[in-house]
Protein 1
Amino acid sequence: EGDARYLLEDEQGARVQVVSQGLRHGPSDVIAALARGEAVDAALYYFRTALRFETAAPALQHLNRVVAVGVGARDARLVRLSVFGVA
């Protein structure tokens, strides 16, 4: 389990705080390889997260009412998330 908070900024300078609560698990050798920064096929482990957004930017106010889920993959130096709003 893990929680992350981060700030996104769009091209116009509008900021969005993201709160992500997720799970990543898999076989111990796969998790160890991820911890070492090795490339691991994302199909070998489970990485999902629930996301909420908060912004004061008028053009992005709709994000304050969105719950999203993300499917993640860990690369050597970054995390990749595919994020989908829940209708």
Protein 2
Amino acid sequence: MIQPPELEELLAAAVPFAVDLRVPFRGLSVRDGLLLKGPSGWGEFAPFDDYDDSRAARWLEAAIEAAWGQWPAPRRESIEVNAIVPAVDSRQAGALAREAIWEFGCRTIKVKVGAGLAEDEARVVAIRDALDGAGIDTGIRLDANAAWSLDQALAAMRRLSAYGIEFVEQPCADLDDVARVRSQIDVAVAVDEGIRLADAPESVSLDGVADYAVCKPMTLGGAAATLRVAESIGVPVVISGSLDTGVGLSTSIAAAAALEDLPLASGLGTGTLLATDLTDPPLRPRDGLLPARRMAPDLQALVQASDAIDPDRAAWWRKRLRSAYATISQTADREVEG
């Protein structure tokens, strides 16, 4: 881990921001957080509100790596990405899928499922129609966010597997149940929460459990930490974002660019969910690709996003940074003592 700067240096370098979303996602209509400016560039600290201090600390480590450290050397100049469709109604799901295909060139669509099988199937059918209209035979990823029981997962996949599913992501919370789902369906299975919510992600092995590991660098401590997880996880890795701004996406792009093996599109097309971004132009796919380069905020966009955040919320974010920093310091102290 990179030696973190002093807390006061971090606080002095922190710029609060808030950007609007085009459609609600994860219960949010606004994405906010802090940007950190360091000698290497810009980092983003924006852990979701339900992340505890230990998990928020990994996000801060990722921001410090981006702003004060160095990313692993890239192996590729661009990254193929998938688009994402939230748990919206089927009509809007179809519209978002067509936009992703025809405007942004994405050939893979990840869709949120798990709220109800009838609604899930309607959403998947709308996306299937959009992909068929573009001559794309497969291209759908299902993300249940661990919402299903084992029986629900099996019932859902009996219905949904007919629509050209590339993989189903985290169908159940328990990894033993994930392995049982995998053994009983003809669709590949991926794990997300089982990695990013683990106390020690680098100790997780998915060999015999899943076909793919979905790794979100902001939740794992940065690009270098993600590569360490990829080395130990036992299955191919799909890099994914965390509803980041264009600045925050740089960390995930850096991880995807540095991986030796990147067999599938990365889940980094989330810029299409933002109504505004901190970069100009917004970081959205072109021909289904994102460039593998560091992104910096546009000054005017950052000023507008900083003005948009409520002062109390900005103070809350600074307090959260302090708590995450204290967690990093305590962990470092324990490692020295050990």
Protein 3
Amino acid sequence: MSDLILFNQLFAKYKDRFIYFAYTYLRDEEAAKDIVMDSFIYYWENRESIKKGDNISSYILKVVKNKSLNYLRAQNVREKAEKTINERNM
């Protein structure tokens, strides 16, 4: 089976589940969709480095989780910076 066919099957099978998973962290559907797409792209770009026999869906799910947590960290930093800027301008 070609990589592209496998990718399309994985995407069709897991996309909605992964979006829901990311949404449970983010509570933002659009951000969850973006993160899932980024995660699938990350998998595709790095598929040669993944060992044969590794569970690809688990690999992508781990990427989704890490990207979701990174998103939340970045959002927290932005909110703190905005609060600091607003307090200085008062």
